[in-house]
Amino acid sequence: MSQLRQDPTTREWVIIAPGRAVRPHDPPRVERARLPARDPACPFCPGNEERTPPEIMRVGNGSGWRVRVVPNLFPAVSPDGEPRRAADGVFGRMEGVGAHEVIVESPRHDARIDEMAEDEVEDVLGVWRRRYQALEREPWARSVVLFKNFGATAGTSLVHTHSQVVAIPVHGPEDLRRHSVALRYFDDTGRSVYDDLRDAEVRQGERVVAEVGSMVSFAPFASRAPFETWILPARHRSSFARVDDGELADLARALREVLRALREAAGDPDFNIVVTSGPAADRDQPHFTWHVRVLPRLATAAGFELGSGMSINTVAPEDAAARMRESLDRARTAAR
Amino acid sequence: MSQLRQDPTTREWVIIAPGRAVRPHDPPRVERARLPARDPACPFCPGNEERTPPEIMRVGNGSGWRVRVVPNLFPAVSPDGEPRRAADGVFGRMEGVGAHEVIVESPRHDARIDEMAEDEVEDVLGVWRRRYQALEREPWARSVVLFKNFGATAGTSLVHTHSQVVAIPVHGPEDLRRHSVALRYFDDTGRSVYDDLRDAEVRQGERVVAEVGSMVSFAPFASRAPFETWILPARHRSSFARVDDGELADLARALREVLRALREAAGDPDFNIVVTSGPAADRDQPHFTWHVRVLPRLATAAGFELGSGMSINTVAPEDAAARMRESLDRARTAAR
Fold it and tell me: The complex's ipTM?
């Protein structure tokens, strides 16, 4: 029998239906092309810096850069123009004003976050925080969407490791929904629903993947996708723009662990990473907690998902978390 | 420059960004395996009726059936059990009660709706209506999701032409959103937002694909996907359960035309079809209009879409509709 579960952060129901997959726990391993350490044709490789639009920032000096930020060559939105609304009856529109940046996460063509050194991942996350802070301050920005696509089914066209940040002049529907549920929950309880979810997951324990310093990772009770994993700070903090260096270092370790566990336990699937943050504000907002979601692409959204807005997940998060913990335990034993 | 457009039926913004695709208007043609008229290994082919769970209904007699409805062999939800809620702090759940049925649309293994005869498509739509009516009456049913997946990237595992219907004991988030926007619009204006959108599309004309009897098809102003096409009744009617036979015949023709145009103009892409209906009610509800959406799978939802809930569409609906109209004109000229 399948089970319907409600995600307290969106109030949306998910169908957990392990019976629908023949071998739900054991996805086939994705075959990945072996990449060279440098590809002369890759616009993100050192030596090809002039093939990207003018650089926004870098970490490291000269040709020895470690992380680079450049505008997306095919931007969905761009900084020119005015986000003025125009309406013609039911048709509302505005110019595509915004920012669309690419964060090249390593000079190495064959780098992957789960294989990078801890300080290399910290460099990347430090850039995420800086670009988040900078874009959130743009007067027209209403949502800042920070994400990473890994693999073709997750929407990547370039294999050189990179993430992206998009700032837009409207609240994305996901932001609107999450913030409205979180505000309502705060008014009802005086707490952040994310903090309460994290504490309940830690208390139950069976869906926890790892606790790494000030970070907790778990496969949430109402996971929409097989092996979906969230990372939350153990102590409340509303905005990703305000994480401190200690948290950033712990997040780097936690993210690396989650991605390693996912690779081992779920057959190295394609995935997306999404960073979701509370609103820009001078002071911490008690109703929202920033968090990172790792969303593996092991299932295809079909007509049911498009029509209902609900997901069918064929792997119970309890099983996913157990498998991920086992991989981490095996790796720790092997390293001894 | 890209443009942000607001869908009046969801109030969600979409980014229309033709500049992001190198050849946005001319997707590569999907290579499809040539299918035999009958496949002995196919559970949906005549002669293999015992390989499906016990039949729910059929059109036609004996071995000469034309359409068959059977329970899904791997159901996401099932009719046994009670949709009782249980809550443990932030964790809300209930048993996966519901119905999950498969509609085998033709005895022919190689049939496709765009190649079927008009009366064959009418038979299929008549079954959609009957199953919709039946499931909507289940006391536990809150949402009935009627859909079709065509092609692997749209989530099909079996190629024999079929659609599905799922009834669930909660309101899917898409239903909640669409109905709440439609109720608010009605309270503000006294009209259905779908009727107003259809009338505005017909008035502007450039996104209309075809007007077929009592049905209008168009690529909506704020299309989320390249070549997305909606079919609406020309006269208001809230529930798909209440379409009359004349409307059903026109819908069969309209759907066939849209799928033919899509095949020619967009390279025979994979697609989903979703039927969305107003609430079950004794009388027509003025705030909602049933409609059919054809959603081609020409793009991959990536981290931006998952994180923001917004879509980036690289084909302007004006261009998509013009291409689809041209294909239909060419086909009509060739048929003369």
Answer: 0.95
